[in-house]
Amino acid sequence: MAKYFDVHPDNPQRRTVSTVADTLRSDGLVVYPTDSCFALGCRLGSRDGIDRIRSIRNLDDRHHFTLVCRDFAQLGQFVHVDKDVFRAVKAATPGSYTFILPATREVPRRLLHPRKKTVGVRIPDHVVAQALVEELGEPLLSSTLLLPGEDEPMTQGWEIKERLDHVVDAVVDSGDCGTEPTTVIDFSGGEPEIVRRGAGDTARFA
After folding, report:
1. pTM score, two decimals?
2. 39 in a domain, yes or no?
3. What's the domain count of the chain?
C-alpha cells in the first residue's frame, strides 16, 4: 500500500522530502510532481524500480528513460555535451524539456537506448521535484506517468494513490499537475531533432 505525502508546493516540508528520499534509497518507486506532469521515479541503480516502471507503463527496451537532475553540473556527469549543444541546453533549463544525449559510463547499460547508447536528461523547473533530487543527492530515474491505453496522464494525487496503490511505494502530491509531458529534443546527432512536442516551446529548436 502506497504512502501518501501532501507536500507544500512552494515550501516543501524537509522532513517529508527526507522520508521520500529514504524510500527511494530503499529501492522504492514513487510518483512525484514535475513542471510538466506527474512522473514515476526510482533510484538510478534500482533494477527493481526500472522493472516496475516498465511493467506499469508497458514499455519495451527502446524506451528512453529520463535522468532528472538537480543542476547542469550534475547533468554533465551523465551525458556528453559539446560546446554548441551546451549553449542550447543551458538556455532551456530548468524547464519542461527532455534532451536525448550520448551517455557517459556513469549511466547503467540497461538504461541506454540499445542501439544509440543515449539517455534522456532534464532539469525540472519545479520546487518539489528539485527538493527531492537535492535531498537524494543523485538524479532520479524517471518516466512520465502515462498508463497504457490512456491519452493523458493523471493530474490528481489522490486519484493516482487509488489507481496505483499496490504497485508504487509512495505518492507525493503538491497540487494538480498538467497533462502535457515534456518537449523531447534529440541532440545525439549534433543538430536538434524535435522528437515530441510538449510543454516546452519548440521555437528555439526549430
Report:
1. 0.94
2. yes
3. 1
